[in-house]
């Protein structure tokens, strides 16, 4: 179980959020919603250890995990190297890029330079890393932005498989996500 107890964060000189509490069990999902600037991305970055929490605790399986949670983090930027092929972009993440590319519908493009991808294809390539990284926790910032309906369905299948294996997901979004039974947490006013 991933649990947050009274988390608070400051960005610049602004208190972004305070008193954030949640618990996500194995196989569960938490969807963060709220207006731009409400702290969704900041909360994900705190959980990933990329930002400091001003207060509170994060527990993973009952142990303090703030700043040390081993999770797969997918932020706003796709982190795709344009000079490499799709398969080459995935090799640092695992030994089976072909299977990961197939999972997101990019298998036929494995040898294509990433600079030729559309925005949606770049996002799918970024999502393919989730299939390669054995992390129990997925922290996803707008995972379906730029995706067509078929790609959103593929993401839903990947997420369902991850959850069925005991993994959990915390995702920030402005769009509906294919995460049945997810708990919602609204941030901001």
Describe how the helices and strands are arranged.
Layout: E1 2-11, E2 14-24, E3 29-33, H1 40-48, E4 55-60, E5 63-64, E6 71-74, H2 86-90, H3 97-103, H4 119-132, E7 137-141, H5 149-164, E8 168-172, E9 183-186
Parallel strand pairs: 3-8, 3-9, 6-7, 7-8
Antiparallel strand pairs: 1-2, 1-4, 4-5
| Largest beta-sheet characterization | 5 strands, parallel
Low-confidence stretches: none
Q: Give the tally of β-strands.
A: 9
The string of secondary-structure elements, in order, is EEEHEEEHHHEHEE
Examine the coordinates and then state which fold CATH places here, giving the name of the CATH topology of the largest domain: Rossmann fold
Number of domains: 2
Q: How would you write the strand order of the largest sheet?
A: 6-7-8-3-9
- State which percent range the strand residues make up: 25-35%
Supply the CATH architecture of the largest domain.
Answer: 3-Layer(aba) Sandwich
